[in-house]
Amino acid sequence: MRILVTxxxxxxxxxxxxxxxxxxHTVFGIDNNMRALxxxxxxxxxxxxxxxxxxAKRFTHVAIDIRDRAAIEELFSEQRFELIVHCAAQPSHDxxxxxxxxxxxxxxxxxxxxxxxxxxxxxxxxxxxISTNKVYGDAPNEIPMNELATRYDYARPEDYDGVAETCxxxxxxxxxxxxxxxxxxxxxxxxxxxxxxxxxxxxGGCLTGPAHSGVELHGFLSYLVKATLTGRxxxxxxxxxxxxxxxxxxxxxxxxxxxxxxxxxxxxxYNLGGGRENSVSMLEAIERIERLTGRKLDWxxxxxxxxxxxxxxxxxxxxxxxxxxxWKITQGMDAILEEMVTSQRTSKRAFV
Length: 352
Hints:
The chain has eleven helices and 14 strands. By secondary structure, it is of the alpha/beta class. The chain has a seven-stranded parallel beta sheet, sandwiched between helices. Strands 9-11-13 form a three-stranded mixed beta sheet. Helix 7 (220-230) crosses helix 11. It starts with a strand and ends in a 6-residue tail after the last helix.
């Protein structure tokens, strides 16, 4: 199979490249290292590209910008892809307010460019779009919650498994990032439903893993580990540090992509995260990482939450599990954190 992965030097993209390369597929990867532009040296992914070049056997890297429609069309006209895994994005909730035009061009226009080129050149291909739970804006904050000793949690039994795909995505405060991803999310659905293309949308929780180039503005667990190991100061914003996220390993994300590709449902939307078992609050994550590393994090509390941020977000995975019963979470929180600590301790990359 001929596969295209965008954002191929990033967390999910590189995991997808490695996974499908091991299976013997031909993989093309689009990545122009815009993460370094967004976040500076700490976000640079060239180290990961070099790793892929050294380990993947059937991988071709293409350094083009997904906003460049002519370049995208040239690539699609030369190749006939059977699977497109679209991971490339401006991924930061906070950074988007500084660069709203660039954020929208990358996240929304770039996605439509890829969808349209797929429609014109390989309409039978499966197209998987990595969206985000930020498309829900702050609507999940309307779910009744209890404040516990170390976290917030849902108050009603019917909400125990988390936020479902029925949560509304409009009439909420999103952040500019959430809005640009929502635009792309809707466009992807429309290409699936209107044009009957094999498009699937995954609304990710906290996607994580050892290949994450975590920075302060994006990459929650990765940067938290980095700050703890290096002794750099860390700021916790709002909600008393009790805000909750569910975390999913990049391997489990790629397995979900693979399951969808094997039996695509045009225009379907799925929440994808670690679920309740892999949920952790900021306070809980700090305590667990300090215990694993044997170091204390130098952190301070800022009594102002990020605008539009979630208080408690756990992905309800029931819909995806119903449609794809062979898929399951294989990496628990302890394994995720242990791997991340080991990876960053042994990495030859400079912590910047």
